[in-house]
Design goal:
The complex is a heterotrimer. Chain A is of the alpha+beta class. Chain A is 32% helix and 21% strand. Chain A has 2 domains: 179 residues, no CATH class; 102 residues, no CATH class. In chain A, strands 3-2-6-7-8-9-1-10 form an 8-stranded mixed β-sheet. A 4-stranded antiparallel β-sheet of chain A has the order 5-4-12-11, with no helix packed on it. Chain B has 3 domains: 129 residues, no CATH class; 38 residues, no CATH class; 145 residues, no CATH class. The radius of gyration of chain B is 21 Å and the shape is globular. The mean pLDDT of chain B is 93. Chain B is of the alpha/beta class. By secondary structure, chain C is an alpha/beta fold. Chain C has a 7-stranded mixed β-sheet with strand order 10-9-8-7-11-12-15, with helices on both faces. Chain C has a 6-stranded antiparallel β-sheet with strand order 4-3-6-1-2-5, covered by helices on one side. In chain C, strand 13 and strand 14 form a beta hairpin. The chains are: A alpha+beta, B alpha/beta, C alpha/beta. Chains in contact: A-B, A-C. Chains A and C meet through strand 4, strand 5, helix 3, helix 6 and strand 11 of A and strand 4, helix 1, strand 6 and strand 13 of C.
């Protein structure tokens, strides 16, 4: 497999950044990792994953979708779209890489969302295999192998070298663009690292978490479960889980009057919010129980019902770490799977 | 302590004094504690937990729970009792329907501080005479307890329970805390430095509303930021300054009512030190109107909602701004 | 770059009809003239006044009308208040069509049809009624039971009297909730009136109105011997995108904007009771 010494990462990043914008996960001042634009001297984080997911690259928290000019009774629609610049996201973890496949099912199904597709077409996802999974990790539950990441191109580290392999044409083009820095390397040590990681993955506290009790055909059973009341009773109704989640993709559309025209934005929304389904004449989900249930039913039942059994979760564990009251999909699954 | 609490809760449930118990429920790991309502001895035995990670202030749940039929037992740490008093003062809870057992406070631990040391794969955390012994997937780790203390506990203002019906353990005193040190540091910055500090912090905000929703002082039936007719209900940021305004407006709204419980910063997924905004207000109120601690009692008149002839003039803003 | 469904077209309001004290019908054409897009009866469109809001409305006119689209809109929120304050010539934005349609070319073909509507619930059915009237030979008998709070609240009253009632193959049964001077027709709630009328159970039913009316009407129809597979309705939930992506108009795994708004009652029954 092709490789480059980890000591030459800076050189590698510089070579990538010369051709297109490069984003890498790096540590910010408060210690948390987040994807930022690479510039000389910016180092790859040692942390397992970024605090926020990588979905922003394709589905940003806020984006301007269209502008309007209002003149008397007339309206002019101003299409603000333009081709996105090419960019590379380096160091995406296997869970987050899978989240793009899930988001694709929503945004690239007919009618295709041009805003998402524009970014997707111009972005190259370079993934990084995991070697130190955390106790909150459960990607295996959703069939993700943390040692064999998806994405356009995949990387592994054996502690000395970074190995890289293309998963598709886009990934191959990426590797070709940096091939002068790469050399053939022996993967014996890497194979050991992978074996060790697999052994740890098998010992994770959530290694046995199963989706067997969920899926599209379990709708009525789970929807009508009495357990939602207890599960949701201390939910604050905030949007933390939604906003750190790599697969949550519900959105709102809002207009702002700039004084010189109207800007229409699309932004992340949360089904946990009280106004999510509120209409002028009523609201089908007036309690936090109903809103809480919606989020988990969507991931565990509705999404697989509409997408050939694929679940709307990748087991990244962000909601496990970040929920202010530590209620999360794992606790929900464990409660609901007991008949 | 946990055993004594469970025992007492069971007694009060059994003799019918209370119908429900608000406490903390153990999770999947050593640290992922969920506030919960317990209704039976079995539930208490199975899941009730009180340890170094039970930091959540459960007083806000009383807004909902105290209005239900039957008395509710709540375990409150000293800091949490200030929140309950403030809620009582604002008529947001039915104090007569609440039975408070005061329990010792922290310091509690912050799992994020343990993880920040690079410790991962955490299977258990034990406090061995103020050294944390952490069993992980990658072997045992140790670190001093003092380095993993939650920020809100590190600057604890009081070990005294300001309201309770009974105590388990002893009551403490109001402490001479160093909680305004960081505020002073910010005050001593130049305006530009201070602006840069807050811009950097607040620009991390993802508008998840966790700070607002956990805040015991934020109990409006309908928040202005959730009201489409208010003109400020914005999930989308129309400019990069908007999330800053959200926090500043919220700090104004809870000024004089915030007890400095520190929950806002504890729950912030982006590690924004939001409590510093509130502490600035508390510090200013103390210096402009005399020492005042929100939640210390249920009867006194709050400086910002009370008029006295000695109140500072509005020009104080101008005078201070010139400094 | 390809067109994106979220980027709307401009429409011009060329006529505004006052139907009731709180319902107006707006005629919309493209600035170049003609319809902004084609649709099928039961489909919806997103109308917007930029800066005010955007919301989903059923298209009230029949697709057989080749000149314009119409929307009967009740004033009940921020956007609709603005729409009601508009004058002729005002431009709005419009995108669509969204959702499925009543199965006019399949399951309804050749059938005797019973339309049951309450209040503004007539709006989505009017599209089907006029479609069927324009293709009269392709359907059996048409019966329309329509009720409102008062005579003044009957939407499209003039069209009902002048056109529908004058149409030989159409039976129209009107009712209002309470007696009123100048009204010698039926008085009473729609569900009860349907039971009194005892329509033949070989009819296929299309019902729309307030949730409470739909609930009791369905119960009444069952008493008369109708089955859920004979009855269609059209739903309304909060929508932002119109294409099943923004994630808020779902009932179970079905999105009202995409999989609906038209559902048969046996289909609705299989979904959670959350609407």
């Amino acid at each position: 497999m092709l490789k480059i010494s980890l000591s030459r990462l800076e050189e590698l990043f510089a070579a990538i950044a010369e051709k297109q914008t490069l984003y890498i996960p790096s540590d910010r001042a408060d210690g948390a990792a987040e994807f930022t634009k690479w510039e000389p001297g910016k180092a790859l984080t040692q942390k397992l994953n970024t605090l926020r997911s990588a979905k922003d690259f394709f589905f940003p928290q806020t984006e301007n979708i269209v502008d309007f000019k209002m003149e008397g009774k007339n309206i002019q629609v101003i299409d603000q779209r333009s081709e996105h610049e090419d960019f590379v996201i380096f160091g995406v973890r296997p869970c987050d890489a899978r989240s793009f496949t899930i988001l694709d099912k929503v945004f690239l199904s007919e009618p295709v969302d041009s805003f998402y597709k524009n970014r997707r077409d111009h972005g190259t996802v370079v993934t990084m295999a995991c070697s130190r999974p955390a106790e909150t990790c459960f990607c295996g539950t959703f069939g993700i192998d943390a040692t064999e990441p998806e994405g356009d191109a995949a990387c592994w580290s054996d502690g000395e070298d970074l190995f890289i392999k293309a998963n598709n044409d886009k990934g191959q083009a990426f590797i070709d663009s940096i091939s002068s820095l790469l050399e053939e390397g022996d993967t014996a040590k890497l194979d050991q690292v992978k074996a060790k990681t697999k052994e740890i993955l098998s010992r994770l506290p959530l290694a046995n978490l199963s989706t067997a009790a969920f899926g599209g055909d379990t709708l009525n059973e789970h929807f009508n479960s009495e357990k939602w009341a207890e599960l949701s009773e201390s939910c604050l109704g905030c949007g933390t889980c939604t906003f750190v989640c790599p697969t949550c993709q519900c959105y709102d559309i809002k207009d702002f009057n700039t004084g010189n025209g109207i800007k229409r934005f699309r932004c992340w929304d949360s089904c946990m919010y009280s106004d999510f389904t509120k209409m002028a004449h009523g609201n089908p989900r007036t309690s936090q129980l109903e809103r809480f249930r919606q989020r988990f039913m969507h991931k565990l039942v509705y999404f697989p019902a509409n997408n050939n059994g694929e679940f709307g979760c990748v087991g990244c564990g962000r909601c496990l770490s970040k929920c202010p009251i530590s209620m999360n999909i794992v606790k929900v699954m464990k409660a609901l799977e007991v008949k | 302590m946990q055993e004594a609490m469970i025992k007492r809760a069971k007694e009060l449930l059994a003799d019918g004094s209370v119908k429900r118990v608000i406490g903390w429920k153990r999770g999947e790991f050593a640290y992922d504690i969920t506030p919960a309502v317990f209704e039976s001895a079995e539930e208490l035995d199975k899941d009730f937990v009180f340890d170094d990670f039970t930091s959540a202030n459960v007083s806000k749940y009383l807004v909902k729970e105290s209005k239900k039929e039957g008395k509710v037992l709540v375990f409150l740490k000293p800091c949490d009792t200030y929140s309950l008093n403030q809620l009582t003062k604002e008529h947001r809870v039915d104090r007569d329907n609440i039975y408070v057992i005061g329990i010792p406070g922290g310091p509690k631990l912050d799992i994020e501080k343990i993880k920040a040391k690079g410790i991962t794969g955490i299977l258990s955390v034990k406090n061995d005479n103020y050294t944390l012994k952490i069993d992980t997937l990658y072997g045992e780790e140790t670190m001093p307890f003092s380095e993993a203390i939650l920020d809100k506990c590190a600057s604890c203002k009081s070990k005294k329970h300001v309201t309770y019906d009974e105590l388990i353990g002893e009551d403490g005193d109001v402490l001479d805390s160093d909680r305004f040190d960081m505020v002073e540091k910010l005050e001593n910055m130049t305006a530009q430095e201070r602006y840069d500090f807050w811009r950097e912090q607040l620009s991390k905000c993802i508008r998840c509303n966790a700070c607002r929703n956990v805040c015991p002082a934020c109990t409006c039936e309908k928040c202005v930021f959730d009201n489409p007719n208010s003109g400020v209900e914005n999930k989308a940021a129309s400019d990069s300054f908007e999330e800053n305004m959200f926090h500043i407006i919220r700090a104004f709204h809870v000024a004089g009512r915030c007890t400095d419980c520190g929950e806002c910063s504890r729950v912030c997924p982006q590690n924004i030190p939001l409590h510093l905004l509130n502490r600035k207000f508390i510090k200013d109120i103390n210096s402009l109107y005399g020492e005042y601690q929100a939640g210390a009692d249920t009867t006194s008149r709050a400086p910002l909602t009370d008029y006295t002839a000695d109140d500072c003039e509005a020009s104080i803003v101008h005078e201070r701004g010139a400094e | 770059m390809n067109n994106d469904t979220l980027i709307p077209h401009v429409g011009v309001v060329t006529d505004i009809r006052i139907d009731t004290p709180d319902v107006k019908t707006f005629r919309v054409v493209s600035p170049e003239g003609g319809k902004v897009f084609e649709h099928m009866p039961g489909q919806c469109a997103m109308l917007s006044i930029p800066g005010v809001g955007e919301a989903m409305f059923s298209i009230t006119s029949s697709p057989t009308n080749k000149e314009f689209m119409e929307f009967s809109i009740k004033k009940c929120g921020c956007l609709t208040e603005w729409l009601h304050a508009m004058e002729v010539g005002q431009q709005i934005t419009i995108r669509g069509p969204y959702g499925n349609a009543f199965p006019v070319d399949t399951e309804l073909k050749g059938k005797d049809l019973l339309f049951i509507a309450g209040g503004i619930g007539l709006a989505p059915l009017r599209s089907v009624i006029n479609y069927v009237r324009d293709k009269r030979g392709e359907y059996g008998d048409v019966q329309i039971v329509y009720g409102s709070r008062s005579k003044d609240d009957l939407v499209d009253y003039k069209e009902i009297i002048d056109e529908w009632m004058a149409d030989p193959g159409v039976e129209v049964d009107l009712t209002i909730d309470n007696p009123q001077e100048g009204w010698d027709g039926h008085v009473g709630f729609v569900p009860n009136y349907v039971k009194e009328l005892k329509p033949s159970t070989n009819k296929t039913v299309l019902v729309c109105g307030p949730p409470i009316m739909i609930k009791f009407t369905l119960a009444g129809l069952k008493e008369l011997g109708f089955t859920e597979t004979q009855v269609y309705t059209t739903m309304e939930l909060r929508m932002k995108c119109g294409v099943g992506k923004c994630g808020r108009c779902n009932i179970g795994n079905k999105y009202v904007c995409k999989d609906g708004p038209v559902f048969r009652f046996d289909q609705l029954d299989a979904l959670p009771d959350e609407y």
